[in-house]
Design brief:
This protein is of the alpha+beta class. It has a domain at about 285-435. Helices cover about 35% and strands about 10% of the residues. It has helices at about 1-25, 45-55, 70-75, 150-160, 255-295, 305-320, 340-345, 375-380, 385-395, 410-425, 430-435, and strands at about 85, 100-105, 110-115, 120-125, 130-140, 145-150, 170-175, 190, 205. Helix 10 (about 410-425) packs across helix 11 (about 430-435). The termini are far apart.
Length: about 450
């Protein structure tokens, strides 16, 4: 027995180390240099909380919606962004049903969740360094707004493989029963701009037209024991939700299809940026340790360091340029003012072009480069990652990179995107410098 144990020790040690590393990898965002739960957030919600404390800002409570409207004004979240989800897949599931859906409102960096007679407004944001940050605002405290930052509870879902193992956001499509409960044995879909149209929006209400394409929204499995198929035809091309539930308690009667498509893209793009940020900062940490141990000069980049920076940068470039976007087979049109309002936010180049302008015939945007290239999350990318992002963008947009993953970009697309970025982005010199550097 002793001999057997001596032979097993090396194996047991290896298994222990592997298990430790696996567990550790899942918590990379709680280690140096991220320190997610203990770090001070700098997202728009955190800034608003500090502004309220200093007396510079104020949110007010009103009957019916509580702090929602005032919060939207302070955070510049438009009503036209409203989308409605009736599946029981969020914090206040006991109050969410197909008759009382949860409303989600968003801008580029902030997401708000509101339910009828809810105890809290659910708030999340894209922090430029931490990733998804999560808060609640107590609706039962009309005199003094009480914000609470949530960490471990939310991260059970929002810090998992669903979000690239970094704190992030999720848009999920489910097979809902008549009460809004997901029928998990039928599976779920994490949806983004690459998702097939027919896998999207199960458990969501969808208003808008989309021709012969079919999605999973606006319908339930009325009797899952009899049929496991949604009646997707009944949920298609819906422009009025009043037959599904009482729309008057909501800020608008819409759950706009274009807003849903933008939401799917930006949630995933934010997760990509967070993963690249964290990977880049951890790479710097590891490189510093190795450089000191091997007496290399500060800032030395080994092949491993370069490879890790490049891998993170490539994922950002692919996300920005919609490399895996699912094509539309019919035109899509929303029902609210979201399409017009979103596109008007610019910035516009001298020719009146913008990365926010929609196509909605064969793809989401006219110029397929994400508007989140202007975001704080993009700006905060570590230099080792971001310099490589700009270099790769130059290679692709100049036409020097002709690999198949960029085949969806025609020559005129590449030229237009390059011109728009050069005229509107505060770091545009990075693109022109990359071009000059060859």
């Amino acid at each position: 027995m002793l001999v057997m144990m001596s032979h097993l020790r090396p194996l047991m040690f290896v298994v222990f180390v592997l298990n430790f590393r696996t567990a550790s990898a899942q918590l990379d965002f709680e280690q140096e240099p991220i320190l997610y739960s203990s770090a001070t957030a700098t997202d728009p919600v955190a800034r608003l909380i500090e502004s309220i404390k200093s007396g510079e800002s104020r949110v007010t409570w009103e009957p019916g919606h509580g702090y929602l409207k005032s919060l939207m004004v302070e955070l510049n979240v438009p009503e036209s962004s409203q989308v409605l989800v009736f599946s029981k897949t969020s914090l206040q599931i006991s109050r969410i049903t197909p008759r009382t859906p949860r409303a989600v409102y968003f801008n580029d960096d902030v997401y708000l969740g509101w339910v009828q007679r809810g105890d809290v407004v659910e708030i999340s944001a894209a922090d430029p360094q931490l990733g998804g940050t999560f808060y609640t605002l107590d609706q039962r405290s009309p005199e003094t707004p009480a914000f609470t930052r949530e960490t471990s509870k939310c991260l059970q879902c929002h810090g998992s493989s669903h979000t690239r193992r970094t704190p992030g956001h999720i848009v999920r499509s489910v097979f809902p029963d008549s009460g809004g409960q997901p029928v998990y044995r039928l599976g779920t879909h994490l949806t983004d701009d690459s998702s097939p149209f027919n896998e999207r929006w199960g458990g969501w209400y969808v208003t808008g037209t989309h021709g012969q394409q079919r999605h999973m929204g606006n319908c339930t499995l009325d009797n899952e024991e009899v049929s496991e198929k949604l009646d997707v035809d009944s949920g298609a091309n819906v422009t009025d939700l009043s037959s599904h539930f009482e729309v008057r308690p909501y800020l608008t009667p819409h759950s706009d299809i274009v807003a849903l498509m933008v939401l799917e893209h930006q949630v995933t793009m934010h997760n990509i940026l967070t993963a690249a940020n964290h990977a880049g900062r951890i790479t710097v940490r590891d490189a510093d340790i190795m450089n000191k141990a091997l007496e290399r000069p500060d800032g030395f980049e080994s092949e491993s360091t370069e490879r890790r920076f490049s891998s993170a940068a490539e994922s950002v470039v692919k996300g920005l340029l919609f490399c895996e976007e699912a094509r539309l087979s019919d035109p899509v049109a929303g029902t609210s003012g979201f399409t017009t309002e979103f596109a008007a936010r610019g910035p516009l180049d001298p020719k009146g072009r913008s990365l926010r302008q929609f196509d909605l015939r064969t793809r989401l945007f006219r110029y397929p480069c994400s508007f989140l290239i202007y975001s704080e999350a993009f700006a905060a990318l570590p230099s080792g990652v971001k310099s490589r992002v700009w270099k790769r963008l130059d290679e692709v947009l100049s036409g020097n990179d002709t690999t198949s993953k960029f085949d969806h970009l025609k020559a005129e697309d590449r030229q237009a995107i390059r011109e728009i970025i050069c005229d509107t982005h505060p770091e545009a010199e990075s693109l022109t410098a990359a071009a000059a550097g060859g």
